[in-house]
Design brief:
This protein is an alpha/beta fold. It is 45% helix and 19% strand.
Length: 336
Amino acid sequence: MKDILVLGIESSCDETAASVVRNGREVLSNVISSQVPTHTLYGGVVPELASRMHIEAINPVIRQALAEADCTLEDIDAIGVTYGPGLVGALLVGVAEAKALAFAAHKPLIGVNHMEGHVCASLIEHPDLEPPFLCLIVSGGHTHLAEMKDYGDFRIIGQTRDDAAGEAFDKVARAIGLGYPGGPKIEKAAREGNPDAFHFPRGKVGESVYDFTFSGLKSAVLNTLNQMEMKGEKIVPADIAASFQKAVTEVLTEHTITAVKELGEERIVLCGGVAANGALRASLQEACDKAGIRLYVPSPIFCTDNAAMIAVDAYYHFMKGERAGFDLNAVPNLEL
């Protein structure tokens, strides 16, 4: 059987990325140009700046990905690109680039859902992993519990009713003066803090045991900080970070284990940018070990936004005969 090479392109937020993947599992190149140093100056992603920087970076990134994979555009069998969800201006850069390349080189075009891509990141390092399985998708914009029934076929089990977990990390990090990006900085600070210094609420949605809510937790942290300032009490950012992180990881772990037991699944995939958090990985691994459930987690480089995961997902859509037209457009609020 002929090897299938897929070029993946990702530009949904603040990473410009390109990757070449062979046969849906073997990563030949994975090039990421991060904008974090620029956006750190502003305390978060500035959409207009992100779009401009994607335009500057996208051609060099693709050229580097092809060069590292030791292939040319002519060798590529299909081009996959993130078309949502994400920042509309940022998405448009990747979509326009992919359409131009596909048109010029007469290659099939595959539109990829960014969240599907995060799930497919777990396939890269686990050749034994095949659907169906339960997945916990935790990122800056999304917190979902979903069942991957087949490639490209998902059923939502639960999701956040308000803030995503990653969004809560960013807001709390900003409140205690750690800055952007919040996730890594909260995790680093938490290593020096006492996770039992504060008992922040573990949000529950009464009518759905699988759904999440993080706005109450975020508000509780902010209220605690305000009260301590008014009383003149000393604020230890590491203690706040550790206690907040413990609250988030406990809720994510508890809901996921409840779902996997009740649904009768035997495998869990943890993915998305927040899946790089060491405390969450350890918490879910411990719970899975106790329950006799197999946990699959990508390496941190494949948890954060990258194009290898987009190429992997595109491969399976390509093999099912799915193609996008040249009317493919960015869908910033695309659902899983």
